[in-house]
Design brief:
36% of the residues lie in helices and 23% in strands. It has 10 helices and 15 strands. The strands form 4 sheets. Strands 1, 2, 3, 4, 5 and 8 form a 6-stranded mixed β-sheet that branches. Strands 11-10-9-14-15 form a 5-stranded mixed β-sheet. α1 packs across α2, α4 packs across α10 and α7 crosses α8.
Length: 309
């Protein structure tokens, strides 16, 4: 009997999902959903349940086309940004207008109730319903080590720049926490920086705040990148230059203490990496510690999810 898992990459705007079988993604199951992150608690939880049901429907159809009529679901793995209690499945994201309504809610318990109530879904699981949660950056990092930019390295640092600043430090396939200058949580988002924490500066809101400081009013990073690409001497490019410089200073600290073989970027802001590469690399030695951007970040997160089951 075929054994599958549903992997979900939960973001503030969209949720990407796919079914993984034998460490391989079933391509036709890859789908993007509205996160509905600014809705109420019931709406957010119901949306997660809908995604699980939809993925089951899609994979059932795909496997049937392959001549496979029976399959079991080993579990559901969700990559969530922090702050989050991953062991218990409780979100502590607040004041971002993203998932505020599920602050302190045990998402795992809420979903398990819905699954138990729906026999059509429950029957695909084994004796127990397994729902696991992991930091989205950590799942991404594990996946990069399997087939991405970290495949040729034993020691690397991953940074996902988007709604927030996610991070993971990997050494010989294991996540590093509380060693080599790495915080006990393995995450740097809440480490002090300037007048706040790292997450305040190296995230979408941080980049857009830098733009406002230059009197550039844009609604997203993509718009800012278009302005910068249209004129390399523009104020928009100056914003990316400053972003890269500040980020480089942060990374230089971990290059010194953790000594990664490579630094790998993911997340939406990494699509504009070339706009801040130069100033970032001035703060570190790119020959000693190369900086790379993930080629297939979403695939890495999906494959990384298999490590939690």
């Amino acid at each position: 009997m075929t054994n599958c898992l549903i992997a979900m990459d939960v973001g503030g705007t969209t949720i990407h999902a796919a079914v993984v079988r034998d460490n391989k993604i079933i391509e036709r199951t890859i789908k993007t959903y509205d996160a509905r992150a600014n809705k109420n608690k019931d709406n957010i939880i119901s949306n997660l349940m809908f995604i699980i049901k939809d993925q089951l429907f899609i994979v059932k159809k795909e496997l049937k086309n392959e001549g496979c009529s029976n399959f079991t679901l080993s579990g559901v793995v969700m990559g969530f940004p922090g702050p989050f209690d991953y062991e218990n499945g409780i979100s502590y994201i607040i004041k971002l207008n993203k998932f505020d309504a599920i602050y302190g809610v045990n998402i795992k318990e809420e979903l398990m109730k819905l699954i138990e109530y729906d026999s059509r879904v429950r029957n695909y699981f084994g004796e127990t319903i397994c729902i696991a949660f992991g930091n989205d950056a950590t799942l991404f990092a594990f996946g990069e080590g399997f087939f991405g930019q970290g495949k040729m390295y034993s020691r690397y640092m991953c940074l996902t720049l988007g709604t927030g600043c996610g991070s993971a430090f990997i050494n010989n396939g294991k996540q590093v926490r509380g060693e080599y200058g790495v915080p006990k949580t393995g995450e740097i988002f809440n480490e002090p920086f300037e007048y706040g924490i790292i997450d305040d500066y190296f995230s979408t809101r941080g980049l857009l705040n830098l733009a406002l400081g230059k009197k550039i009013n844009v609604s997203n990073v993509h718009e800012l990148a278009i302005l910068a690409k249209s004129d390399i001497k523009s104020q928009a490019q100056e914003v990316f230059n400053l972003f890269g410089e500040k980020l480089g200073k942060i990374l230089s600290k971990y290059v010194h203490t953790f000594q990664p073989d490579v630094i790998i970027f993911g997340g939406g802001i990494s699509k504009s990496f070339e706009l801040f590469r130069e100033t970032l690399e001035k703060e570190i030695d790119p020959i000693k510690t190369p900086v790379k951007v993930s080629v297939r970040p979403l695939y890495s997160t999906f494959i990384g999810a298999t490590q939690l089951l």
